[in-house]
Amino acid sequence: MNVSPHDPRWQDLLPVFALEALEGEDRRQLEEHLASGCATCRAELEELKRDLAVLAEAVSSVEPSPEIRQRLMDQLPGQSPKIVPFGSRLNTAAAPSATDDSIAAPSSGLLSVGLWRGLAMAAALTGVLLGLATFWQQRELGAVRYERDRLVGQLERNHGQLEELRSEAKALASEVSALTSRQARQVVLAGLEEAPGAKALAYVDEVQSTARFYAFDLPATPSGHEYQLWVISAGVPASAGVFTVEEDGSARVEISALPAERPIDAWAVTIEPSGGVPQPTGPMVLLSS
Predict the structure, then answer these.
(1) Residue of 29, 26, 34, 36 lying closest to 2 (CA atoms)
(2) How crowded is residue 89: how many other Cβ atoms within 10 Å of its Cβ?
(3) Beta strands 225-233; 266-273: pairing state
(4) In this predicted model, what pLDDT tens digit does every residue of 172-192 receive, in sequence order?
(5) Which helix (H) or strand (E) holds 45?
(6) What are the beta bridge partners of residue 286?
(7) pLDDT tens digits for 88-102?
(8) What is the DSSP secondary-structure string of 110-161?
(9) In terms of Cα–Cα distance, which of 288, 275, 289 is closest to 228?
(10) 143 CB contacts (<8 Å, ≥6 apart)?
(11) Hey, where are the domains in the chain?
């Protein structure tokens, strides 16, 4: 039989098992674990049994004082018994009859071996039970702390997501405001032979000299190339930035400062080497009408 994995909790259950007080599923599991051959648990169990045997032998030799014996006997039901001092013998001539109300105290040997051994075992069991109670309290406290940390982490993640949503909402509100502004002028770009299904819109704020450009249905560029946006004034093109497209062919470019010093006559998009070029060299895919 393979030795079952050693679980630290067996250390907390072995003392109760040694006192024959462990029951239920815990006892069954511990017995199976011991039967599997765990050397650590077997050695600890043997040590516990030896300790209990030594404890029982130690308490069996302890004789209580007459005062303690009297208090113990006083707590028994019925009338107060007659106590014979230790070291003396009963006077057989004066021994009480069967009908006498007084009762002779048990011999010291029986009292020490029986009652005091029981008290010692009860004290040991009480200590074990207190240890188990502390173990389970710590276990429950650990579970509560884990749940608390999990909830705190979830709250922090939710807070971060909320901040992201707020930031996105703020950006969206700014974008909507810019697109619906009275001073925004809309420019429409249509696809050419390289990308006949593509289209784009540019919203130009000529007062602020800014613009927002949106492209749709553009094909992916060849490796090592990007799209480059141009504004054309008096027939001279000026770069307004480079961009790549998403998987669906869409793109968004925000232009914080239009490069043209004169009124813009047209907008165009070409395919250029990555990083862009000073003047258009590649095929044109979009052009404003």
Answers:
(1) 36
(2) 6
(3) antiparallel
(4) 666 665 555 556 788 999 999
(5) helix 39-60
(6) 191, 269
(7) 433 434 444 444 444
(8) HIIIIIIHHHHHHHHHHHHHHHHHHHHHHHHHHHHHHHHHHHHHHHHHHHHH
(9) 275
(10) none
(11) 10-60+106-149, 184-288
H helices within 4-100, ranges in order?
A: 10-18, 24-35, 39-60, 66-74
Other C-beta atoms lying within 10 Å of the C-beta of residue 108: 14
pLDDT band at 117 (very low <50, low <70, confident <90, very high): low
Beta bridge partners of 284: 270
Per-residue pLDDT of 224-272, as tens digits, reads: 999 999 999 888 999 999 999 999 999 999 888 888 677 888 999 999 9
At a CB cut-off of 8 Å and minimum separation 6, what does 71 contact?
Answer: none
At 180, list the tokens: 């619906």
Going by pLDDT thresholds of 50, 70 and 90, the confidence category of residue 68 is low
- Burial, 127: exposed, middle or buried (Cβ in 10 Å; 0-12, 13-18, 19+)? exposed
184-288: CATH number: 2.60.40
Percent of the chain with pLDDT over 70: 65
Polymer length in residues for the chain? 289
215, 227, 240: which is closest to 269 by C-alpha?
227
Closest CA to 212 of 249, 174, 245, 247: 174
Tell me the one-letter amino acid at 229. L
The string of DSSP codes covering 207-257 is: TTTEEEEEEESPPPPPTTEEEEEEEEETTEEEEEEEE---TTS-EEEEESS
pLDDT tens sequence across 119-145: 556 666 666 666 666 767 777 777 777
Q: Is 69 helix (H, G, I), strand (E, B) or coil?
A: helix
Closest CA to 251 of 288, 202, 206: 202
3-class secondary structure, 33: helix
